[in-house]
Amino acid sequence: MKRFSKSFTEQPTLPAASLDAANRVLTSARLHRYQAEDEGTFEVAQLEAEFAAWQGAKYCLAVASGGQAMQLALRAVGVHHDEPVLTNAFTLAPVPGAIRAVGATPVLVDTTPDLVIDLEDLKTKIEQNGARVLVLSHMRGHLVDMDALRQLAQAYYLTVIEDCAHTMGATWNGIKSGNFGRIACFSTQTYKHMNSGEGGFITSDDPEVMARATVLSGSYMNYDRHEAAPPLRYFADAKFDCPNMSARMDALRAAILRPQLETLDRDIKKWMDLGWALENALSQDTTFELPARPDKAKRVASSIQFRIPHFDQQKCRTFCETALQRGVEIKWFGNEKPERYTSTHQHWRYLDGSKLPNTDLILATLFDMRLPLTFSENDCHDLVAIISEVANSVDAEDAA
Ligand SMILES: *Cc1c(COP(=O)(O)O)cnc(C)c1O
After folding, report:
1. 125-152 pLDDT, tens per residue?
2. What pLDDT band is residue 48 in, cutting at 50, 70 and 90?
3. Least enclosed by CB within 10 Å: which of 172, 222, 304, 331?
4. Residue of the nearest CA to atom 14 in ligand 1?
5. Which of 100, 168, 189 to mutate to test the pocket of ligand 1 (most atoms within 8 A of CB)?
C-alpha cells in the first residue's frame, strides 16, 4: 500500500537574502524597530512601505502577531468593554481570543456549507445585538460574496475588520482581500503565507484609525519614523488618547520578511496550482463534498477542506487514524476534543455558549489538510489516491 512520506509541517527554506539580511541586523545589534544604521534603513518601516504597495493599501503597520493586529484594530476602531463584536463561528482561536482580550463580547455568526459566514444570520444578529463591528474571518481562505457583504455593512453602518490570516494574496473580483473593510489584519506566523515565526500587519486607507493603531502598537512617539503611516497631523490627538500596548515588530523579523515579499506572488501562484490539482482530483470521487466557490473568488490554497457528509463520528475518527497510518495528516473539526489548532466554538468556554446547530452540523464531518509549498502536483495526486482509498475502506468495513 502506498504511503505518503513528506512532512505536512515542513516549510520551504528561507531565501538566501533573508539569511543575509538577518545576519546584517544581528551583526549591528540594532534589533529594535526604531533603530537603524541611518534614517533611510529602518527595516520595519521599509517592510511596511513595501507591503502597503503590494497590498494596494495607503497605510501599513507591522506588528508582533496576527492576534495583536486584531486587538489593535479592535481598539483603533473604538471597540469598548462589553461591546458585542460579531465574528464567524467557523474560525480559529486567535479570533474570538482577540475580541475577548480587548474586553468585548464575541458574538458568533453561523456558517454556510461553503464554509463562509451566513449573511442571513449576520443580519439577524446585527438586529438582535445592535453590534457595530464585525471581525470578518476569511477562514481557510474561503471568501464570502464580498459585494453582498459590503452592501449589508453599508446598510447597517457596520465597521468591518478583515482577518486575512488565510487570504494574503486572495482576490474577490480581482481586488485583494483586505481592501474591503475599514482595516485588515494579516499574520506572518510560520504556517501562514509569509514566515517570520511570529508577526503580522495591519493595513487600511483610514488615516485616523491607522494613527491610533500606530500609537497603540507602542511607537514611543517615533511615528515620524514610519514610511507607510498617515500624515503627522493625524497623530495630534492619537498620541495623547491611545495607551501603549507594546506590539511592535522588530528589525530582525522585518529583515527576514522583506525578501519573502519579493517571491510572494510566485508562492501564491504555486498554492493556487496545488489547490486546483488537489481539489480537481478530489472532486472526481463523489464521497467528498467540496465547498462551492463563486468565479469572483480566487483562493490561495495553503490548506484544503472537504466533507464526508454521510460519515458518523466513529467513521470520521477511523478515517483520520487510517489516513495518518498512510502518512496523511488530516484534522477533523468535528472532534469533541480540541487537538492542536483544531478547536471549535464549543471549546471556547469564555463565550456565552450560544447554540449554532447549522455550524455544528457542517463541522461534524469537516476535514482539514495543510498544503505546504514543499508539496508538488504529483504529491497532490498521491494524496488524493490515498484519501480516496482510506475513505472507501472505512465505508467498506461498515458494510462487511
Ligand atoms: C493564525 C491566525 C490568526 C493570527 O494568528 P497569529 O498566530 O497571532 O499571527 C488569525 N486568524 C486566523 C483564522 C488564524 O488562523
Report:
1. 999 999 999 999 999 999 999 999 999 9
2. very high
3. 222
4. 165
5. 189
